Amino acid sequence: MAALLSWFLLAVAALVSEAAGRQRRRLSLTEDDVSCWETVSLRSRLPPSTGPEPGDLAPGFKVPTLDGEFSYEPGAVGGPVVLHAFTNKSGFLECLWSSDSSLSSLVNGLPDSTQVLFMSFDDSAVGDALWMKEQVQRAATLSKKEVLSRLHFCPVPVFSLGNWIPGVFYSWGCTGHNCGLSQAVFTSSGWKMPIIIKRLDARYDWLTAHWGPASYPLIDAGDGCELSPSVKGAVVWVSEGNCSFFTKVHSMAKSNASGVLVYALPGNPLQDMNCVGDECDTKLGIPAAMVHQEPLVAQELRFGKLINVSFQKTPSPNFFFGINQQGALAEMGWFLYPTFRFINWQAQWFDFNAALQTKLRNPAKVVSVFDKVQMQGERGAVATVDLPLGLLDFDTLELDASLSCPGRRDSSCAHWDHTVQLFVCCDYLSPYCNMELGRWITAFRRGIGHWLTDVSPLIPLLDSNKCTFTMKTVPWAMPWMVSLNLRFSFGNLTDDFVEKIRPFKVASLYHGGSFDKNYNKRFHPIKFSIPVSTKKVELYAVITGHGSDEHGCGEFCVTSHHFLVNAAYNNTHIFDSAGSALGCAMRVKEGAVPNEHGTWLYGRGGWCDGLQVNPWRIDITKQLNISGSDFNTIIYFGLFDGRDPDPARQPGYIVMSSFLIFYK
């Protein structure tokens, strides 16, 4: 290691002046450099061994960095460690490291607990490390934020580390948005070899069209800001600038082009192509990507020569993995677009999970219901278990639930986000039989979800010492492996002299349904009296909105849910973050699984992908006539934009369990 550090210091001395202002080179393959096919060289160093899997404990390691040696020993670091390897062959990574907003998010949003080790796959690792550090230093100076003490830059190429780390990067290879090498391939009849350059596709949630396998004619359309009838059926070659990315793609789509390639002006990095504001409301049906200007392509187009372009994705090593607080290796998920925010969100989840593990060490009577049992089909997962004696002595019930995948990698996880519900029946003759005890939403192709949900008001549903639990989702969903523990404990006490009250009765209220013009017509006032000895009455509801009409209801629209007590007290629950761009990303600290496939970041109607649905609880005791001889009334209604829903097409729906909880 000492010899390696000496070599490194000599190399740095030779490269510091070069790295200070050097431009990141681009990958280009022409007939003049067949011997330097860089996509092959990246994979030619693939080690024969496959390395450890997610969940395995990370061995200790030491690597040189620009500021000395970074040493990891299991249990000694304290917080999570994220490892990221750069390659200049990736357009995604070029943008990640060139974008001011991306770098600013790393500097300002990385949790204080987290350290990041930056490396490079390329032979230019020394220069890459210097350049990456310079980029972060510039962002930190602008933000006046101290973060560099937790960021470490390794000048040794990944293929020369001599430890287990390369095995993880290579064997965890992937082809998501954040990994794999997206490339444009240009061919012409007079060329001996194709020209292959890296590309960065437009933002996934803006342009949903994909490049097909076909080869398209390429036509120069200037800056692409105006309509051009001559481009019909072709992929257009347009320069950046003079108008927005949206205007270029919109103009070319109206001109019936098959796709858009925007080339960066000389010296400029690839940018994250996205819509802004109201532009995003216009649906565009063609794909687009950004590339570097390739001189030979531009020259041949000027001379009117026929050039064809096709699109490919070359598999690559993974570019990211993590080590959590427990020392276990972890995947980092799917980065929807090039920003360090996705590293921050995964690091936030590491912190959440560490805090959860601490909570699970608190004293409790634990009853195991499911232990990695497959949940699939109409039946779901079913188990009958014995509950502890003296159940009524406990005043706290928490559901310790997790959803994992059939394999150890996220690639084995189920697609899409589905509702998971837990039903319980302890006495088939009881009115409580098969009531809903808990609800979660599956993550989209990630298997790390783990949550602790307080459902203490529903303890009366467990009205026998032997109960059957059913956990299920839609029958057509791919399988999940479910684990569930019931945790009984004592809580809710702040003073030894305060009288303890416990729930003793649950009264079912309303369920949801199709969120259409008849939605509120289904609900009628419910009269109820207060049982003798009642000290407190609580409204308890679990409500989620799903589906999408022309307003995005009920998943992506803001709805309000009202429980009117005694015609005077309006208890209102509003899903005010539904449809917001980062509504669910902001809930990673609460346990929302980050970096899923799809648009997991958006706020939803009362739920998020990969998160428990928290019960909504309101103490309504003071709103009631508490004497047992008087009746009280309650009525529910749901609104969109302050009025009854009235969709023109495909109404969404509301899933609701609501109760009155009586305490004594």
What does this molecule look like?
This protein is an alpha+beta fold. A seven-stranded mixed barrel has the order 7-8-12-11-10-9-13. A five-stranded mixed beta sheet has the order 6-5-4-14-15, with helices on one face. The model is unreliable at 1-49 (pLDDT under 50).
List the helices and strands and how they pair.
Layout: H1 2-21, E1 28-29, H2 38-44, E2 61-65, E3 68-72, E4 81-86, H3 91-98, H4 100-109, E5 115-120, H5 125-143, E6 151-153, H6 165-171, E7 181-187, E8 195-201, E9 216-220, E10 235-239, H7 245-254, E11 259-264, E12 288-292, H8 295-302, E13 308-314, E14 320-323, E15 329-330, H9 341-359, E16 365-375, E17 381-386, E18 396-404, E19 419-425, E20 435-441, E21 449-454, E22 466-472, E23 480-489, E24 503-508, E25 513-514, E26 526-529, E27 536-546, E28 559-565, E29 569-574, E30 611-612, E31 616-619, E32 631-640, E33 653-663
Parallel strand pairs: 4-5, 5-6, 9-10, 10-11, 11-12
Antiparallel strand pairs: 1-8, 2-3, 4-14, 7-8, 7-13, 8-12, 9-13, 14-15, 16-23, 17-22, 18-21, 18-23, 19-20, 19-22, 20-30, 24-33, 25-33, 26-32, 27-31, 27-33, 28-29, 28-32
Helix pairs in contact: 1-5, 4-5
Mean pLDDT: 91
Main sheet strand line-up = 7-8-12-11-10-9-13
How many helices does DSSP assign?
9
Q: Main beta sheet, described?
A: 7 strands, mixed, barrel
**Rg, alpha carbons:** 29 Å
Structural class: alpha+beta
- What portion of the residues fall into strands of 2 or more residues? 25-35%
The low-pLDDT segments are 1-49
Helix content: 10-25%
State the shape: globular
N-end to C-end Cα span: 69 Å
Strand tally is 33
